[in-house]
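BUG-1382 | component: ligand-complex export | severity: low

The export step for magnesium ion jobs runs without errors, but we want the raw record kept on the ticket for reference. Input record follows.
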Amino acid sequence: KDLQEVRIGSQPALFSTLPFLVAEEKGWWKDVGLKVTITNFPAGAPQIAASRSWDVGIVGSVPAVLGAARFGLHTIALAEDQSAVNALYVHGPDSDNYIRDPATIKGKTIYLTGNSTGDLAARYCLKKFGLTKDDTTIRSMDQAQIVSAMSSGSVEIGALWAPNTYTVEEKAGAKLLCSGKDAGVLIPGNVVVRAEWGNAHPHRVAAFLAVYLRAQRWLEANRKDALVLMKKYYAAGGVTISEAAMNKEFDRRPTFNLVQQLALFSRGSQPSRVDTIMNIIASFSKEVGSLRADEPLPDPKSYITDKYLKLVNGDPKLKSFADLNGSGKGQ
Amino acid sequence: MTMAARDRSGRTQVGIAVVFTVVGSWYLGSKYGLINPQLFPTPEQFIAAGRQLALGEGYAGGLLLQHVLQSVKLILLGFFAATVIGVPLGLWMGWSRKAEALVGPVFLLIRPIPALAWIPLAIVWLGLGDAAKIMILLLAAFVPSVINSFTGVRNIPQAIIEASQMLGIRGWLLVKEVIVPGALPSIFTGVRLSLQVCLTALVAAELLGAPLGLGKILYQAGLDIYPAMILAGMVTVAIVGFALTAVFDYVERLSMPWRTRN
Amino acid sequence: MSNIVFSNVSRSFRREGKNFLALDDITFSVQEKEFVAVVGPSGCGKTTCLRMAAGLEFVSNGSVAVGGKEVKAPGPERAVVFQQFALFPWKTVSENIRFGLRSLRVPRNEAEDRIRCNIRLMGLEGYESAYPHQLSGGMQQRVAIARAYVLNPTVLLMDEPFGALDAQTRTVMQEELLRVGRANPRTVMFITHAVEEAVYLADRVVVMTRRPGRIREIINIKSIRDAEGWQQYERIEDVMDLESFVHLRTQIWRLLREQNERVAN
Amino acid sequence: MSNIVFSNVSRSFRREGKNFLALDDITFSVQEKEFVAVVGPSGCGKTTCLRMAAGLEFVSNGSVAVGGKEVKAPGPERAVVFQQFALFPWKTVSENIRFGLRSLRVPRNEAEDRIRCNIRLMGLEGYESAYPHQLSGGMQQRVAIARAYVLNPTVLLMDEPFGALDAQTRTVMQEELLRVGRANPRTVMFITHAVEEAVYLADRVVVMTRRPGRIREIINIKSIRDAEGWQQYERIEDVMDLESFVHLRTQIWRLLREQNERVAN
Amino acid sequence: MGERLTKAQTIGFSITGMLFFFGIWVFAAWVKLAPREFLPFPWDVVGEGLKLLIIPFSGLTLQDHLAASIGRFMSGFFLAAAVGVPLGLLMGWYRWLDNIMTPLFDGLRFIAPIAWVPFAALWFGAGIGGPTLIIFAGAFPPCLINAYRGSLFVEQTFIEAAQVYGASGIRIVYEVLLPASLPSIIAGLRVGAGAGWQSLIGAELIAANSGIGLMMVRAQAALDTPIVMVGMIATGIFGVLIDFGLGGIEGWLNRNRGR
Ligand SMILES: Nc1ncnc2c1ncn2[C@@H]1O[C@H](COP(=O)(O)OP(=O)(O)OP(=O)(O)O)[C@@H](O)[C@H]1O
Ligand SMILES: Nc1ncnc2c1ncn2[C@@H]1O[C@H](COP(=O)(O)OP(=O)(O)OP(=O)(O)O)[C@@H](O)[C@H]1O
Ligand SMILES: [Mg+2]
Ligand SMILES: [Mg+2]
């Protein structure tokens, strides 16, 4: 039987893209009639800029907004809740003081990667500490630079996301100051599709989604095997990660099953949960200027859709496939 | 065709005409949809970005002028460091075969390492201040100064050296009055290239958490996927490069009166 | 004392791993205040000889002495005029001429006097602050000669100094050299390709053979010149029409042609 | 028909915004199969004249015609031999010689024959696949001449072709040129600085004045040569000793010296 | 000029220089000028390099990363040479082309190759076109400039000789300008190869999923300084090799022409 092609845009060594490895190892792509090619990108910005070269993918929620506004990327599911792993870290002799009284970071310089989920978490943390935009100096740098600058002592406060968070925790002794979750903001990872491709091939999107959800369920259900795979996957991305950190990855990143996804996306008379979350993120993008003044906030209805989730839900085969336990298959 | 084809005077006028033609076809191309605005900004977008940067709310933490001043400061410091280290090193290597053998291999190995690759070490050794950024510029920009100063000395005609020996000139006087002026045209070629490299290495240097700067504009606009702003940044860099080179040309002409005809 | 003495000088160069002999057993001398011209086929080692006297090149065997002392290094008492002038392009005419005086530590006033005097001697007035590239070839060569003269060298070594000039300028320079030499004779070793030039200027002409360079013959011009009274003529063309001149010229020419034939066969 | 006719030619160049006259009202001609040498002070416009005949330079006024047709562009029927040889260093001897034949579209066999013949004529056998830098100056010049001869040009334009050679090689080349010219006479315009060379080689000598270049005099050599029977001598030095030769030489020399004086005063 | 050295002396001094360099390094590491994890000893780096030959980092071994980089490099460099050299030659001959190209080019040469990264992503997506564009941006200017200047300064007499002997237009370009400026062109290729290689590594630091640059940036994020240094040294060595290769050709050409 002919396999249908799907090009996936991904990033290496991320919890949210680990399911691709699971699916690969288990041969699930073939089971749903897909043949996938995965292209890795080092970060969200180049990934969405290059969105013409892939069809479906996982991106952070901040790039997802930009992708929606500029490149017609539709959010079709949430990869996970990353609020706990996008966080401000502190390092150095004063770090305990900062943790005891976060308001003392007033007047300091915070290094973060601009226009990212880390940026978002950091700004909500500052809000929570009662600090305004002008109370601290914000500098933008790539994650790798923040990691080395922090561990060599030139940066006291930096915003990072996993797995860089574990690197600074374990190798440099940096301490968690405040995560997005602590600050009360929900930061998802988004499953996105190029709109016109999705419209042309809705069934491939649904099949892809089913596999992704199924792999997430499998990871949840088989922690021990999952840790082995994860170690291997992270190593392939150049990240060596401890057992403890891997467990934290699982604990700090809740995922959603099909039922939960449908609930998150369902719009009654009011906006759905996802609409609300993404609106927060879009306003953040506007605030930091990555959405330009002349660009309107994208209307959630225009790019957030549960069309493909419903396709999965409506197809008994896919539905039971996505729900690992229900299908009785796997393992 | 013979003489005329190889006489390059009167270029300015043609150059201006060419720039106008290019801008014109860009405008028409965008207007009639031959250029996809998602892939390349339209003139309107470009002007809007330029206005935002220069006059409006600014971008990447500041207004155009602030960015330019910050970057020019960094370029001049890096350029100064690169030439102050590179030119004497090149002269020394050119003059002494021992020095060439001693320093050459290390220089050869360090030379191909791109400016960006030094970032981790620059951060660790010098932190995130101007020192680290200048180190990045220095490492990239001292190479042409060394190479051209070196070849400048090596290409001083043997007869000139022998004439000085015959006249009994040696030591510091020889360096000052013969070696340096003899190598000067080549030194200037190298130093001019160093200046150009400083501009191209600026993006790398300003990845180190710069508060302002042209490199930062380009970096930020890349993150924001803002093609019009990238283009505005590029055009600014080109103009700054042009201006600095023009100043440089003037200094060069003043420094070598024996080369200006009549 | 300022004579130049070559005693059994030989010189070999390494080329492509092999030693090859460039100069073989050269013995001749230039007496004090004598003008000796050296002619010979291209590549016979004329320049090498001159460079040895200058201290820019070393003997493999034998010795070169100037003023009774063996030559070890270059120095301003043995001024060289190079074929390609070797002026410093970044120095003006007067700076070029002054340069050698700086290492001699000549007092300032005296230095300026000597420079002015030599600039006049060479007809360079008005060009003191011109750069070499602004001068014609003949004028550049005059600067090079002034630069040598100003040092008051005991010995003057000239390697085809007029080789790069056109024929007309060349004759003017030759006459000038003769005029200056009569006023203030010096020990001169002069290399040339032009046989007429050698005969016209020199007291003696050394003819060398093709590789390896040996001395073929040394021809005394002075005795004939004095006997025939060439001095009475100001102009080179007047001298060149004299039968005595033509004969000497042809004699040397034949010696040189001999060399070419030897190679052709 | 292959004569060269300069009629009232003048040429001015722009320099520093000003027009200045380099050639003024030049009228002379080179008859078919005649060898005309042009001498004159440096910068008088000799090269400019030759380049006009070659089509590399244009007149400001007047006209230059070759074979009755006005010259408009360079072409292989008017072969030029340049002072610096201008051989292509990246081509072997035979490739250099072949270069011109390719644009003439000579059939392959004939081309090879002509190349072989000219290589023999110039004594270059065995050097067909050598690169120019592997040859001595004299041999390089022979290649340059072969490259011109192989085209069977009706007109040969030579700009100081022996200027860069040393005196000995030069005489050999002069004799060779004469030999080849006797066997196969052509229309030749020949520029030189060396008066002897002009007298030795040419049928007529054109003497030019200093800037602006004008024609000072045209001297007929052929009549004297034939009358005195120079042809009977093989060797240049034998001819140079003849009184008739010496007189012609001195006559031209004086004409040239006149020019220098005019400038000096 | 300093006196010439014998071969043995040259080698001796070179080794001394290298030892001096590594001596400073060891000393700095030994006195803990920076913490060991940021300033390892040279042997740590060598050990790490050997380890990387067998144990993959970021999915690939050192030689695989290097191969990925070299593959990209070749495509961009050859394109730069294939476009730059002929264009430069033609600019040297046809004045109108020169007048059109030079002002555009004069502006572009100040722009860092890595500044093209976002455009590369926009225009070429994830394909080979992106890295090719960036290497091209680095390698093209020297290729073009040297061919241009080389052909502009070809001695007039060669051109006139060619014209006199009946050549014109394109034939002059490929039979005279090209061979006459070949040494300059090779020198340009040499500089261009170096610049292209540097901009490639730079681009990989920002956007790629294999290659030496990627290896370095991942190692940096993982605080694995020895691997960063392995990457720098591998970059340096391969850069030297490219330079030697083209330098050899240059020397051979010059010798062939008796220079
Ligand atoms: N440094 C050197 N190394 C090797 N060979 C040399 C060196 N200097 C000179 N030679 C050789 O020694 C020989 C004599 O050279 P020299 O320059 O003295 O000749 P010359 O008589 O001055 O020739 P010309 O008339 O052409 O100037 C030549 O064969 C030359 O190649
Ligand atoms: N393209 C040019 N532009 C400006 N001036 C020129 C040009 N070509 C020649 N001249 C000038 O025209 C005059 C004649 O030059 P030309 O080269 O013909 O002299 P020449 O007699 O051949 O001199 P020489 O004997 O030194 O070769 C010179 O003053 C020269 O400077
Ligand atoms: Mg010599
Ligand atoms: Mg001329």
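Assignee comment: Attached the raw record above. Residues B 3; C 166; D 13, 15, 22, 40, 42-48 surround adenosine-5'-triphosphate (ligand 2) (CB under 6 Å).
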